[in-house]
Amino acid sequence: MARPKALLLGLIEHAHESWNALSSIAELVTPQARNRAEFIEECRSGRLNGVVAIYRTFDSLEITGRFDEELVKVLPASVKFVCHNGAGYDQVDVPVCSGRGIKVSNTPNAVNDCTADVNMFLILGALRRFNPPMNTLRNGKWRGNPLPPLGHDPEGKTLGIVGMGGIGKNLKKKAEAFSMKIIYHNRNKLSEDLAGGANYVGFEELLRTSDVISLNLPLNTHTRHKISTRELEMMKPGVVLVNTARGAIIDEAALVQALDSGHVASVGLDVYEEEPKVHPGLINNPNVILLPHMGTWTSETQKAMEECNILNVKTALETGALRNMVPEQVGL
Ligand SMILES: O=CC(=O)O
């Protein structure tokens, strides 16, 4: 019988040994295509027939585009698993994959510490309003004249975490070390044990009562623009907003208006609606700290994510099951 194939979409940068070791159980293949049209053609040509598992990276979007209905339809019939290297798998249309009997995995735990660190960095930077003086110093004007606005201490402030998954829970621990009071909102209220003392509140109550709001939820059809004009208006005047999840959870145009009016005091962002484009109203506003999607950008975490994704491919090929099946497919 022909050996199963595992298709690599994107690059392995760190875990070369583990990827190469998969060659004992599968034929490792890469696409010839350099863009979506070519990839669709390559699938149709039969060249990728026999591929059972696909390892894909966030950046492979440049080759294939989203794993949407059009793309999933043309994948070889042999494909049974799509293993996404990342916690957020919004580039993959899970219901469409489920409809074709394709199982999807992600790398949830590997990213928690690293992303929550960036989250905490942005919370502190935005609260302390460090962006304006960082700019004046680089422009040779020390603290500038007039002096930059005073920042705020994290101690005693209420942090509202929207999305209490792995990153949200990790952030909670970090923020507690800065003496912040934690409330959270989640699809489901967590057990006391998992919530670890954080208070569960309704979404609107969280918006109305938090001094700092952190977005830690996945992007999907229910969460796109979850924060828009109405929600921003509900927030306390002077609120600080931080997003390390996905840009499109916030309606960026509405956020720019809320910043311009001063209702939102400062913002820390690692993610944007249309990466790598960033709304000019965010770039030009000194009260916004911006990072170019660096949440998992450490050598330790990048390696851990690759190892985790390779393990998903390996167990899928060996046992027919994924280690980190996405929650939507559990129990299907
Ligand atoms: O953005 C990073 C990830 O989804 O892991």
What's the short story on this structure?
The protein has 332 residues and is an alpha/beta fold. The chain contains 14 helices and 12 strands. A 7-stranded parallel sheet has the order 8-7-6-9-10-11-12, sandwiched between helices.
CATH topology of the largest domain: Rossmann fold
Main beta-sheet strand count, sense and barrel state = 7 strands, parallel
Radius of gyration in whole Å, from Cα?
Answer: 22 Å
What class do helices, strands and sheet pairing give? alpha/beta
| CATH homologous superfamily descriptor of the largest domain | NAD(P)-binding Rossmann-like Domain
CATH architecture type of the largest domain? 3-Layer(aba) Sandwich
Assign the CATH class of the largest domain.
Answer: Alpha Beta
The helix/strand series, from N terminus to C terminus, equals EHEHEHHEHEHHEHEHEHEHEHEHEH
Range of strand content = 15-25%
What ligands are attached or bound here?
glyoxylic acid
What global shape is seen? elongated
DSSP helix fraction:
25-40%
Family: Belongs to the D-isomer specific 2-hydroxyacid dehydrogenase family.
Keywords: NAD, Oxidoreductase
GO molecular function: glyoxylate reductase (NADPH) activity; hydroxypyruvate reductase [NAD(P)H] activity; NAD binding
Domain D-isomer specific 2-hydroxyacid dehydrogenase NAD-binding: 121-295
